[in-house]
Design goal:
The chain is mainly α and about 140 residues long. It contains 6 helices and no strands. The model has no long low-confidence stretch (mean pLDDT about 95).
Length: about 140
């Protein structure tokens, strides 16, 4: 078992899962950026990009659940498990806010705000996960 300064000990067992978690966290963060880019392209370039925006999410929506499983097998800190679950929960909220525009347009206005929160949390997880993967 190795320790980092000011951190809980990280067991040797599960290192492969921690590396996989870091890879998935990195891929997810990039995919969130691509998703925002597709929304921008749909808004400012060509509306055909809305179809790309709405279909691209299906390739990445379950990555946080994979990260959650890897957080357990990699024995990552509980906060990283909760953060992985939080990413998935926010994706569910994104579906909700995108589909209630006709009945609750004010709630739908939170769609891009939640996207910012997802991106911020994904960006927070990437360096922390790589730090723990190197242990």
């Amino acid at each position: 078992m190795q320790t980092q300064p000011n951190a809980a000990p990280v067991p040797e067992k599960g290192r492969g899962s921690r590396i996989a978690f870091a890879i998935f966290a990195s891929v997810f963060a990039v995919c969130v950026g691509v998703q925002v880019l597709l929304a921008g392209l749909a808004t400012f370039v060509d509306a055909v990009n809305w179809a790309r925006h709405t279909s691209f999410i299906h390739f990445v929506e379950f990555i946080p659940l994979v990260m959650l499983a890897l957080a357990f097998t990699g024995k990552l800190p509980a906060r990283m498990r909760w953060q992985s679950f939080g990413l998935f929960f926010m994706i569910i909220l994104m579906y909700f806010t995108a589909n209630v525009v006709a009945v609750m347009p004010v709630v739908s206005a939170f769609h891009p705000v939640i996207a910012l929160a997802i991106f911020a949390l994904a960006q927070k997880l990437v360096p922390e996960s790589w730090r723990l993967a190197r242990v």
